[in-house]
Amino acid sequence: MPIISVPHVFNEDELYVDLRMIFGQSLFLKCEGFNFAGSIKLKAATEMVESAERDGVLTPGSVLVESSSGNLGVALSMLAASKGYRFICVTDSRCNLSTRRLMEALGSQVHIITEPDAVGGFLGARLNYLRALCASDERYVWLNQYSNPSNWKAHYRRTGPAIARQFPNLDVLFIGAGTTGTLMGCARYFREWPRPVRIIAVDSAGSVTFGHPPGRRMIPGLGMNIRPPLLDESFIDDVVHVEEADTVRSCHRLAKSGFLFGGSTGTVVSGAMDWLSSQHDTRALTSVAIAPDLGERYLDTVYQSNWLQDLYGEDVLSPNGLEAGARTG
Ligand SMILES: Cc1ncc(COP(=O)(O)O)c(C=O)c1O
Questions:
Q1: Tryptophan synthase beta chain-like PALP domain location, by residue (predicted)?
Q2: CA-based radius of gyration for the chain
Q3: Which of 260, 264, 267 to mutate for ligand 1's pocket (most ligand atoms within 8 Å of CB)?
């Protein structure tokens, strides 16, 4: 029976959903949403905050500031509340309302950027705002998840080993790419694992991370408008891009079986199923994918029919469309 006094020490790291019954293809989905921050970003937030404390960068009286599409902001809000820091989250108009209200409920201030930068889009505008904020007051501490090595180290130390403990015979690991912290931490861990593991990055169509042209992206979590500084492609075996309409279909296909996951899980599952269906024989492969969060934060977007139809058309959830959400099965 776990008994805790601070929220960040609890994290369910051993839960997987076997997707064979839903998609007709074996894939074990590692659920990262069962902690008090509700997402995998708890690990990166904890590692970045605690290493800044150890280095003497973060001290009593510091004010944490960070750019986040939502989940890191919630995790930092939780940690800041628990550890007694003020926290300002800089996000943009695509941040879900419920995520913003979660941060505010935890005592954080949320600054919303409404105009994208001409070159760097919303992310560029958020980073410009943060630079100006930090220049204005030396109490501000920007952990900078986009370049902070503690972001990937969190997954090198925790997510990678947790998967290896449960699946010592792992063959393929599918990981969504946002800042690429999860991707790079797991990829570096499995590069040192005695058995070869293929690392497949899953990105949203419209993201420039792997050198593709930029395009509209409305679902937060995966994809970037600038190349992620943490990314080292030499650790990645393959990349799959997923259209947002397929992300949505995949989320709804999971929800029809009672599993309400977040948008990026739909992307990762859709990309993984596409990749697996392109292989000659997957029967002997042990495959795992990472589900970064759960679906409640997406009730006004991915699970809201008006939002879906306005963005992706009337037929996005037609029976044929749902089948296409992940082509296998
Ligand atoms: C829901 C969700 N999925 C995926 C990611 C991507 O994780 P990473 O930044 O480690 O690449 C994030 C990051 O914020 C996220 O919030």
A1: 23-278
A2: 19
A3: 264
Please, what is the angle between helix 71-83 and helix 97-105, to 10°?
10
Q: Which residues form the pocket of ligand 1, taking CB atoms under 6 Å from any ligand atom?
A: 39, 41, 69, 71-72, 176-183, 221-222, 262, 264, 292-293
Q: How far is the CA of 209 from the centre of ligand 1 (A)?
A: 13
Distance (Å) from CA 82 to ligand 1 centroid: 22
Residue of 31, 71, 102 best suited for mutating to test ligand 1, as the one with most atoms within 8 Å of CB = 71
Q: Whose CA is nearest to atom 2 of ligand 1?
A: 221
pLDDT, tens digit only, all 329 positions of the chain = 899 999 999 999 999 999 999 999 999 999 999 999 999 999 999 999 999 999 999 999 999 999 997 899 999 999 999 999 999 999 988 788 889 999 999 999 999 999 988 877 888 899 899 999 999 999 999 999 999 999 999 999 999 999 999 999 999 999 999 999 999 999 999 999 999 999 999 999 999 999 999 999 988 889 998 899 999 999 999 999 999 999 999 999 999 999 999 999 999 999 999 999 999 888 889 999 999 999 999 999 999 999 999 999 988 998 765 655 555 54
Q: Which atom of ligand 1 is least distant from the CA of 178?
A: 11
The token pair at 299 is 């009730």
Q: Tell me, in angstroms, the distance from the centre of ligand 1 to residue 280's CA.
A: 30
How far does the centroid of ligand 1 lie from the alpha carbon of residue 259, in Å? 19
